[in-house]
Amino acid sequence: MFCSFTLGASLYDFKPDKSSLPTRGSTTDNKTPIPLRFPLCILHPSPDDPDVPLPTPPPIDPTFGLATYTPSPQSSLVPKPGAGRDHPFYRSFSKVRRLIDITPDHLIALNLHHTHSHALSDLLPEAYHIPPPSPALPAADSPEYLALSETQRALLDRRRSLQTIFAERAAELSIRNSDAFDTLARIRRDLKLGNMFRFFQTVELVTAYFKEDAVKQGEYTAGMPEKFREELVKTFLEPIGWWAEMRYNAPRNPSKIALLNSLFQSRHDLLSYLPPPSNDERRLGILEGPIYAVQVRHDENFTTPSYIRSLPPYGRWEQGDVWDLAREVGGIIAMAQERRKARIHAGEKIGRVRARVVGPVRKDEEEKEDGDFDEVWMIVCVHAHIAIVKGRVSERYLKFLETCDLEAVTGGDQSMLTAEGGEWAGLRVMRSRWWCLVDPEERVEAAYAVGGVMERMCGDVEIIFK
User: Fold this and answer.
1) Closest by alpha carbon to 240, among 434, 1, 76, 465?
2) Sign, Cα dihedral of 220, 226, 232, 234
């Protein structure tokens, strides 16, 4: 956190003596001890100054050993004796009280198909990728442009506007951290942080907690408040979605997964919404959505043998870090159920939020229609890294979770319980690679990836901010 103070113009170029700066818990002239850790811009770190080295992000690309779970006929939602509370599916989950009660058997019972480290093209159709500005696009006064239909012109203008917007964001995100910190400290005046000003302020706070020996100790940001990591993600995502006036708010109620009459706690730190088209409703603070979720996980020692997963009587799962995977899958299921509620109660207002299912808007005629399948998106954060998670879940699957009654879900159609007709009974979750937000090249790539997801979910939203 920054201290609140005002500097005169003549002091901007003043470089203080670092040895005389007050440190944490020290006193100055017998005044109250200063409990804050000074931000790096006050210390003026520089690559040429060996006394105050610039912190670097943890040199890892976290994978956490997550296995690839594939559905099997034995683990599918096959007809079994009983329904509701008597169904074996419900009985297995009714014993879960805490996260550590989750075992691979529960993930198998969900008929989960989870894969990770995907390229963006595996998650998002290429039609929604936002490339850098290209001269190949016809100009507005060119014969090629004038020959297009009105609909084609609108799509082309939208693509050109998005490319311009994201090129500006990419230029801001590509600024080196040390240069951005000097700009925040008023040492440099030739750089403009622009829309990412608050993001670089948060990067400075987060990197202050990085340790040089973090890899050996397994503690990458020990002592850092959780709010810093949440702000890092929020200040990164907000400017990317300004073109659609996207808003990020904490859930009004804790996110939960409904399984018959039981509620299992999940985690969504932020939910994204869109403002309504009416100006009167905007002034009342009404929002529409949710669109996708943001989940920030603050665990840091997944890969160390001393992690809680290795404690008896649970042992160390051969399938990987089951509990971390359960957080991710739980967030997808909770978001899917929220979107199902929005479909059922479309147009209704709960407080100041109007239920509305946003996207995806399908532009490709060749793209397969998924029927009652829904796309669920979530941005996850671990350390200073983010990834995109995509879930594909059917309406019948969600209905089964809420009723545990196959007869009611299938209507007695036995063909829906076969391998050919049972596609609805699977939960597919795909996760992209991880991008480090304190690395300029990776955060630029992450911005384009997140922008593509926004374009897919908000394809019918007019570009407001340019």
Assistant:
1) 465
2) positive
| Tens digits of residue pLDDT in 325-377 | 888 999 999 999 988 887 776 666 666 666 666 665 343 433 444 457 888 99
Token readout for 163 is 């490319």
Token match 């665990």: residue?
299
Listed in sequence order, the residues at least 6 apart from 175 whose beta carbon sits closer than 8 Å to its beta carbon are 183, 191, 193, 196, 200, 440
Distance between CA atoms of residues 208 and 411, nearest Å: 58
Burial label for 253, CB within 10 Å (0-12, 13-18, 19+), is exposed
Question: In whole angstroms, what separates CA 350 from the centre of its chain?
Answer: 24
Residue pLDDT, tens place only, 286-297: 788 788 999 998
H helices of 208-321, in order, are: 214-217, 226-240, 279-283
- Token pair listed for 40: 């790096």
Q: For 379-419, give the DSSP string.
A: EEEETTEEEEEEEEEEHHHHHHHHH--HHHHHTT-GGGGST
What CA–CA distances, in Å, run from 19 to 23, 42, 45, 51, 241? Answer: 9, 12, 13, 11, 43
**Amino acid at position 321, single letter:** D
Please state which of the ranges 47-51, 160-164, 213-217, 256-260 shows the lowest mean pLDDT: 47-51
- Cα(191)–Cα(183) distance, integer angstroms: 7
Beta-strand pair 262-265/293-297: unpaired
CA proximity to 439, closest of 212, 180, 120: 180
d(CA 342, CA 289): 8
Whose structure tokens read 């007050």?
Answer: 22
Which residues does 12 contact at the CB level (< 8 Å), separation at least 6?
186
Contact 329, 113 (CB under 8 A): no
Range with the lowest mean pLDDT among 76-90, 385-399, 439-453?
76-90
d(CA 452, CA 455): 5
Cα 228 to the center of its chain, rounded Å: 15
Per-residue pLDDT tens digits for 26-61: 333 333 332 322 232 222 333 344 343 334 444 333
Measured distance CA(447)–CA(434) in Å, rounded: 12
Q: What is the DSSP string of 111-159?
A: TEEEEEEE-HHHHS-GGG--PPP-TTSPPTTSHHHHTS-HHHHHHHHHH
Residues 22 and 18: their CA atoms lie apart, in Å, by 9
Place of tokens 């969504």: 268
CA 449 to CA 466: how far, in whole Å? 19
Does residue 435 sit in helix, strand or coil?
strand
Q: Is 438 helix (H, G, I), strand (E, B) or coil?
A: coil
